[in-house]
């Protein structure tokens, strides 16, 4: 289990998460029809330069190759880890997940938003809305006295009535001193199971939800994760501080 942050680390973490949120917000607001995903990546890169933070994703090694982008840009059937390129142009009806992980003053903040490029078909709009709501259901369970499984169960329970697929292979996670820390936080699971939540923990909670089946496949670039059935997927994420009271969303502007 991640060791709770010290007061000094927490002070820097608050700033780092605000910066990550600002990069995401600026990038999300810039997305429009006709841009390539490379253009979007460059907006994020410039925002990081302006805010004096670094991309944690850039150069990240998956055992086969280093991630070449600054943020992950995942369009429609791409679930996560999409790489900005000059061939993918944003068009009406697309959904675009922007996953921004940045380091500032030595601490890492992680957040994701799915941007809707209107007009988006109603079932896809609902997918994104329910995924965001499931994120908030998970956050509400991030309390002292609960365990990791309570967060997982809250997300799964929120999604279940809609019959959406919940990605199995990728999880939320502890975050702070590095991008991925203990504990893993699956988006499905049993209540009262897993490690106890302690005040001072910082967690990236991130439902990745598919309109169809939960099954995924990897593209040849070794990074891009797509739905196996080609249907769209949504992804929402915040970095959250567990406190003695209500959970605090650190990546909220
Ligand atoms: Mg994350």
Question: Would you kindly provide a written description of the structure presented here, covering whatever features stand out?
Answer:
- This protein has 253 residues and is an alpha+beta fold.
- It has one domain (7-249): Alpha-Beta Complex (Creatine Amidinohydrolase).
- The chain has helices spanning 7-30, 37-50, 122-140, 148-159, and strands at 54-55, 72-75, 78-80, 95-104, 107-116, 165-166, 172-174, 181-185, 202-205, 208-210, 216-218, 225-227, 233-235, 238-241, 248-249.
- β7 (172-174) and β8 form a beta hairpin.
- Residues 110, 204, 206, 237 line the site of magnesium ion.
What characteristics describe this protein?
4-stranded antiparallel sheet; 15 strands; 253 residues; globular; binds magnesium ion; alpha+beta; single chain
Structural topology:
Layout (H helix, E strand, L loop, with lengths): L6 H24 L6 H14 L3 E2 L16 E4 L2 E3 L14 E10 L2 E10 L5 H19 L7 H12 L5 E2 L5 E3 L6 E5 L16 E4 L2 E3 L5 E3 L6 E3 L5 E3 L2 E4 L6 E2 L4
Antiparallel strand pairs: 1-4, 2-4, 3-12, 4-5, 6-10, 7-8, 7-9, 9-14, 10-13, 11-12, 14-15
Helix pairs in contact: 1-2, 3-4
The protein binds magnesium ion.
Helix fraction, binned, reads 25-40%
Strand order of the largest sheet: 8-7-9-14-15
Rg, nearest Å? 17 Å
State the shape. Answer: globular
Q: Could you name the CATH homologous superfamily?
A: Creatinase/methionine aminopeptidase superfamily
Small molecules in complex: magnesium ion
Which structural class best describes the helix and strand composition?
alpha+beta
Mean pLDDT: 97
Largest sheet: 5 strands, antiparallel
Query: How far apart lie the N and C ends?
Result: 28 Å
Helical stretch count?
4
Uncertain parts: none
Which sequence of SSEs, written as H and E, runs from N to C? HHEEEEEHHEEEEEEEEEE
CATH class: Alpha Beta
CATH architecture: Alpha-Beta Complex
């Amino acid at each position: 289990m991640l060791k709770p942050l010290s007061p000094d680390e927490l002070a820097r973490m608050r700033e780092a998460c605000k910066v990550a949120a600002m990069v995401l917000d600026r990038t999300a607001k810039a997305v429009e029809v006709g841009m390539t995903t490379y253009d979007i990546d460059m907006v994020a890169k410039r925002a990081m330069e302006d805010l004096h933070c670094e991309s944690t994703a850039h150069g990240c090694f998956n055992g086969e190759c280093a991630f070449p982008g600054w943020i992950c840009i995942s369009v429609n059937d791409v679930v996560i880890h999409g790489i900005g390129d000059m061939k993918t142009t944003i068009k009406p009806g697309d959904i675009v997940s922007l996953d921004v992980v940045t380091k500032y003053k030595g601490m890492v903040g992680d957040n994701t938003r799915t941007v809707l490029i209107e007009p988006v078909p109603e079932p896809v709009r609902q997918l994104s809305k329910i995924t965001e709501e499931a994120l908030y259901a998970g956050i509400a369970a991030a309390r002292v006295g609960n365990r990791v499984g309570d967060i997982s169960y809250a997300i799964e329970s929120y999604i279940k009535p809609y019959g959406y697929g919940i990605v199995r292979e990728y999880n939320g996670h502890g975050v702070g001193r590095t991008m991925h820390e203990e504990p893993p936080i699956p988006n499905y699971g049993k209540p009262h199971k897993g490690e106890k939540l302690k005040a001072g923990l910082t967690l990236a909670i991130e439902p990745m939800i598919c309109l169809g089946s939960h099954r995924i496949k990897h593209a040849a670039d070794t990074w891009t994760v797509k739905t196996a059935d080609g249907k769209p997927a949504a992804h929402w994420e915040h970095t959250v501080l567990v406190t003695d009271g209500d959970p605090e969303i650190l990546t909220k502007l």
